[in-house]
Design a protein that fits this description.
The chain is built from six helices and five strands; from the N terminus they run H-E-E-H-E-H-E-H-H-H-E. The chain has 207 residues and is mostly helical. The chain has three domains: 58 residues; 57 residues, Ubiquitin-like (UB roll), CATH 3.10.20; 82 residues, DNA polymerase, domain 1 (Orthogonal Bundle). The strands form two sheets. Strands 2-1-3 form a three-stranded mixed β-sheet, with no helix packed on it. A two-stranded parallel ribbon has the order 4-5.
Amino acid sequence: MNKKFKKYFLITIIILFLLTSLFQKIFNNNINDDMELKNDNNLNSTQNLLLDKEEKNEKEIVVHLSGQVNKPGVYRINNDKRLADLLKIAGGVKENADMSDINLAVPLIDGEKIIIPEKISSSSELEFIEVQSVENNSSIKSSELININSADLDELQEISGIGPSKAEAIIDFRNENGFIDDKSSLTKISGIGEKTVEKIEDEICLK
């Protein structure tokens, strides 16, 4: 009986060992399969990212370039390019191009229009300032003159040598004869002679 028990015990140990080895082998195979699957997924993800990046870099956009460039026009260019790249393709800028406010590193946008401005020469600026100065002086001078055809009684008395009676005479003359189109016509007004007209002609205007 003791020998028979030992025999069964030995057989049991062998069976357990075989089962343990079998389970260990199956477990290792599952782990390896999972690792391979994970590696394949990571590889596919990396490849997809690289493809997406490559497709993005190869995408073309359309940009309109005008102004002081040698070859203005509509250009197709990769969307990863900058303004400096576009200007190089367009043959560069002209000598009179004003690049002071132009950012050459700015990224390009599909459908945009870029205008390279022209420099304003110092002579043009001086001429503009002189014209503005003349216009301003003329405006100031005109605003200081008294309109003999529209001034009221008080305004007319601001003219040199024109008192209340002469101011009323001017208004009466306007009412009777209408618009005064010649300063010499003022001599027809009572109390106003040629000397008075010569004295006040630089202080009045007709319109």
